[in-house]
User: Fold this.
Amino acid sequence: MRVFAEQARQRAVEVLEAHGAPAPVAAAQADHLVEADLRDRPSHGIQRLPTLVGRIRHGLLRPAAVPELRWISGSLLEVDGGLGLGPPVAFRVLEALVGRARGCGISLAAIARAGHLGMLAPYLEWCVERGVLVVALTTSEALVHPHGGRRPLIGTNPIGIGVPVLDGEPLVLDMATAAISKGAIIAAAQRGVSLPTGVAIDASGMPTSDPVAATDGAISPFGGAKGYGLGLAIQLIVGTITGTAFGEEVTGTLDTTYPVTKGDLFLVLDPEFGGGVEALRRGSAFLAQLRGSEPAAGSERVWVPGDRSRRTRAVRAASGYEVPGELWSQLGRLRRAGAGGEPVGLSRGGDVR
Amino acid sequence: MRVFAEQARQRAVEVLEAHGAPAPVAAAQADHLVEADLRDRPSHGIQRLPTLVGRIRHGLLRPAAVPELRWISGSLLEVDGGLGLGPPVAFRVLEALVGRARGCGISLAAIARAGHLGMLAPYLEWCVERGVLVVALTTSEALVHPHGGRRPLIGTNPIGIGVPVLDGEPLVLDMATAAISKGAIIAAAQRGVSLPTGVAIDASGMPTSDPVAATDGAISPFGGAKGYGLGLAIQLIVGTITGTAFGEEVTGTLDTTYPVTKGDLFLVLDPEFGGGVEALRRGSAFLAQLRGSEPAAGSERVWVPGDRSRRTRAVRAASGYEVPGELWSQLGRLRRAGAGGEPVGLSRGGDVR
Assistant:
């Protein structure tokens, strides 16, 4: 069925408030899920709500939690999310980071015990609108095999980077270090279509385009050994600095059973302490040059990361978008606290970037 | 001809001292070049010396320069390399960064006007040996086309990440965001062999395995759109924070004609301000699990980034390694200040990671 963002947002707020989320917390989480759907990333959209509700019911998420922010030095912020929902914790942290970066150029937050952050792009855009650079690193459940290996031991560990420019649209890069999402594999299995080559292996470690075989195997890192190295480095940096889990010990973003043990890092830099307005101006010119450069044969044009997502969002914000009717009905039921609701659709069995 | 590291180091020191480098500067630069050859990365080895000498002769590098380090806030260091050679500038900066990170957990240096840093791995290892995490980002000449485009507008912009662990070998990731180095393309053209698929395009923007056609075209980013996004993000972060050049305006690491306009960033984090010894211990266990995990069919074993390079270095340190006789003779002549010497071999026409 077709919905508009405001309808979806309202329904998500009602579900969250029915399960104990204070109004600002419900609004932040609901906005964030809807932002993912607006960008046509349903795996991070409102289909996550039943899982979030299940986690709240099992005491694994505390929607009324107040995160503890502690500056342990001028630029370093330690955050205990207190099992709060990811987006409200993250925005509270970013507010502190941006304020600090404006005073001294750099700030970094190490976050433990916050709920799943969801799509990174909205955080990046929020920072970029405030004129600062941002790098986000997070860990996630082990679904990706090491290069040359066959067991899923590494998360899809995304990296997000936002860089403002003076004129025109900025760079907003939000990418997993996996070649494909678990959600896309499940969706391919449900529709009976093949996977692209090179994105997954079967249980014996052989590349496969069969999504069912891939479900028993592992997702491949993007870009071979280099993508593997990057995803692994993100795991080690985040785990070491936040004191959170490594590899198979990462739990609690896909399930309704286990505590959240992943970690998140945000680094914020203020260009006023760097190249300043002149650098932002030259950044604009460079991105304009890229966007205007000759496309390769078969390519429509050259995009900068974030461009297509921005365009998709504008279309869907104006015209609405489809959500599964079954999910919409389930969310309707979940607006009553205590009503039953197991995850449906792609979120069943784990659906991560 | 076969040489041992100490011979190569001695010859490089003599060349550099003959061209005005003070002994510690010559030693740092010579060590760094030899470290690349020891790791079988000749594109960053002593074959770079004729280019460095050419740059010194043209006043584009000042081997006796003293870099200016200025702390502009508690964790933020601004560095004017003063056209000094890359490795001595970088190690001086890292010394300052590590000291500062031990006091407050985090430090970042924005470096402009330093010579080519060369291979990143030795900097990463130096930091990791001191128990800190490090991320290095640098920009380089535009050789890589944007995803969906055909013109070389982006550098091979490498990223380096080093993470210490408690026991066993650490992660040392040193990778370009290009699918192949310019040096490897030139070498393939010289030997008349084909390139792997997907690493380069010809002048019309079509993928090519012909190294001669690739020379007129561009190198592809590794990992498609994601690798493109990452390389571009590195360009924007480094250019914006260091106030250095973007895209085609980056010059001065391959040539003997233009000023150096690239920039470098180093971020250092002290795990004592993060997860501490317990996190380092769990990091060790995680890397041991990866290294001991089942290989895929056709794979010898699972490696952690840095493992193979470490092994290669040990073999070549013990047994010596081959260098082109022509290069060795040229370096012999260059030990006399003012002796002629244009770059030979792969370094002719530009050879970057």
Remarks:
- Chain A has one domain: 2-276+308-338.
- Chain A touches chain B through 84 residues (CB under 8 Å).
